[in-house]
Amino acid sequence: MTASNRYALIVFGWVLPFLLCAGPRDFTTLVYNSDRDFDGIFIYTVTQDSDGFLWVGSDDGLYRFDGEQMLNLNANDSTVDNLVTAAVAGPDGLYLGFFAGGIHRVRSGKIEPVLEASELPSRVNQIRLIGSDIWALTQNKGLVILQNGRKIKIPLKELEGVICRDFWVVRDELFVGTNEGLFRYGIQGDERLQFEGVVPGTINHDVNTLLQDDRLKDVLWVGTDEGLFYLERGVGWQSVAVLTDQIQVSALAKDQLNTLWVGSKNKGLVQIELEPRTRALQINSITRFNRSTGFESNQINELYVDRENEVWVGTFGHGLVQLNRAYFHHYELYNTIQLSGVHSMSRLRAEELLLGTDQGLVRVFSEPLKDSLIFERLAFSEGFSFHALLVTEDKIWAGTEKNGLYTIDLASRKMKPVRLLKDNPVENQLIRDIQQDRNGNIWVAAAANGVFELNESGEVLRHFNTKTGFYHNDIVTICPDRYGNVWFGSHATGLALLTKAGELKLLSRDEIFPSFDINTITQHLDGNVWIATQGAGLYEFDGEVFRQYTRKKGLLSNYCNSVMIDDIGQIWIGHRLGITLIQPEYDIIRTFNHPNELGETESELNSVCKDAKGNVYFGNPYGITKVNLPYFNFKIEELQTQVKSIRLFFEETDIYQFAANEELTEVIPSQLTFPHDQNHLTFDYIAIKLRNPQAVRYQFKLKGFDKHWSPVTNNTQATYTNLSPGEYTFMVRQSEHEGYWTDDYTSLKVEIRPPYWEMWWFYLLQISIILLLVYITYFLSARLRSEFAVRLMVYICIFIAFDYIHTELEPYLEEFSGETPIFQVAVNLLLALCLLPIEIRMTRYMKKRREQAALAADRKSQPDQQPE
């Protein structure tokens, strides 16, 4: 069995007379070093936990990354003396394997040992989640399975004396990669493994890494010091070579776009693009990233693809590299192959494009096993300026600026003129647009000559112009829809519709459509028609009404030159100053107009197309701009926001001291109670988007303090000062666009404990003291003979009581009246007016009581007098 019959390559056989290999690639790299708070240079493991945090084991210990902060956790667990060499996210936490042996688990924000190094005294080279169990492979002490609290150690005698590097479970078989080949075991239970031999073709080979294909479950990729191979179940597990050019494969990963990433010890990184539309193993292209192509390192030790499809490359000696697909890619053609004015574009075959330029036709394609686009100038077309292209199943139709309409035969490299007017053999006319209807007929817009309908052979079936009752002779754009109607757009006379019944409706003239300058028309996947205008924005017609999109509603400009619908129904609009994206699923509009992002901002009129992979291309005056994988790169993900920490008075603190228990909400305790003097809180939060954290927007509010959500912000912290005692709920939500918010938010409850003087028992104590004071006053008033002393005591008692009432009422009065002085004066006057009569009445009462007491005392002191 050979590689040639195991996978297919796409090969082109043309001889290319004039080529341009376009670069750079559709990827950008970001290197993490000391400038980004990362000091590791040797990377052992990379993984992502259930909360989205990225964990990196390096020679400088363990790091946790949230997209903005690279947090070093050496003080917590990993040290330079015991490096983390393997990691995996399990159902109950993150499991870490160490260089010196042992396994720890990160759970509830804390790191705890599962197996100490004394229990597992061998380097842990790999940890994987198999079902709901954790399987760990040591370098020379066999296998360990963590299952429902059980620790099952499985010594493998066949592996004694060899170095175990990686393993994978494929259905009911275990494969172990070692320095002496790929060992295969049958799984007969949790603790029973039956040795079935070394896979043929791998004996005495250094097997460094394994990966089961996520689409072809019976395929196992095998990376060795002799190259990349794969095994396939059902064909005897024979190894098949894929890369054998002295590449020492050290790491493997697969992304969501069916791309296999291969890391090596000596030749950098290799991208193998697999065909996603077939169940067979077929390779479309191979791309190399190494020092010669500008990549950071040739020595790769670890690869990981996160949930956002970002590729993380752990090098051996040059740190951590983040590899991501660029959103846009501009191909500059003027200074390279002297091309200008890309007026028209069309998809040519499955993997090719055809460009119509001022200097002729250009074929765009890629060579086998290369990712760069190649631009071939077709010499036979030079001397013509092309403004319209249409590729049908068997022909290429090309409209020129001054020479009319042609059909192109690429095989013979010839152009054949198509005569539209029998009485004009020269036909030096401008062809503005060419379209095909559902019946296969060709519609051609010729400047000053109206519209022609042709059959597939090029014979004119109908000619529409003002002489035949048509509404205009200079049509700019044509759109035959799926229902059999044909739409026409022109400058000055607007929009018209030819129904399948043959009725011509003048929509602009009859004021059904409000604009008179139409640039392009296209039909959406849902059947709606989109009309781009010159100055009035964009219109969507759903069969009943026209809905307008303008600059006020979010468009970059009201001048729309081109429109394309991508594979998921997003609408791309090209302008002179950039690109607009309408995402109907989210009801939002996004704009892109930075030259560094787009390369060139101006889009040519009606120059746009889509390739077989879903990429969208816009023609520019001096090149083309590629929108890279729009169905994937521009989707809005609903991220989960994490409250990472709470700081007191802007200082880091151990918030566990304020926790009622160790139960966590995401990464911090769920029940937090702070003393009254610890009421200056800063909430640190993050919605983890590793690819582009700056794109995330936030809104927050503190329930119990704020009435409304905060303004949209990029900040990842919120500070509240001098919080009153009470219960609060901090709420935060995120979005990648200011106009799109969901009802989902993250919440965290906190409580500010009141001071002792606001506790119920202290209020009771105060009231008791006042009552005691009243009682003492009452008691002494009967015993004091001085009227002044009685009045003084009564006055003091009443003053204290009323001052207490005033103090308690003051916060409510301020809430009602604010700081308006007149209200404060009025309240004080009211209390004073109440104080005087109460004091008088109490004084009289005390005086009367004192007199009664004195009278009673006098009577008691005098002896009884007998009557004479």
What does this structure look like?
The chain is 12% helix and 41% strand. A hairpin with a 2-residue loop joins strand 20 and strand 21. The longest helix has 41 residues, at 821-861. Residues 1-24 have low confidence and may be disordered.
Name the features:
6 helices; 41% strand; four-stranded antiparallel beta sheet; five-stranded antiparallel beta sheet; Immunoglobulin-like; 868 residues; disordered N terminus; mainly beta; 12% helix
Name of the top-level CATH class of the domain at 641-757: Mainly Beta
Q: What is the approximate shape? A: flat
Summarize the amount of helix as a percent range.
10-25%
Structural class: mainly beta
Q: How many individual helices?
A: 6
CATH superfamily (homologous) name of the domain at 641-757: Immunoglobulins
Compute the average pLDDT: 87
Low-confidence stretches: 1-24
Radius of gyration: 40 Å
Question: Biggest sheet: strands, sense, closure?
Answer: 5 strands, antiparallel
CATH third-tier fold name of the domain at 641-757: Immunoglobulin-like
The CATH architecture designation of the domain at 641-757 is Sandwich
- The count of DSSP E runs of length 2 or more, i.e. the number of strands, is 66
Strand order of the largest sheet: 1-34-33-32-31
Tell me the β content.
35-45%
C-alpha termini separation: 152 Å
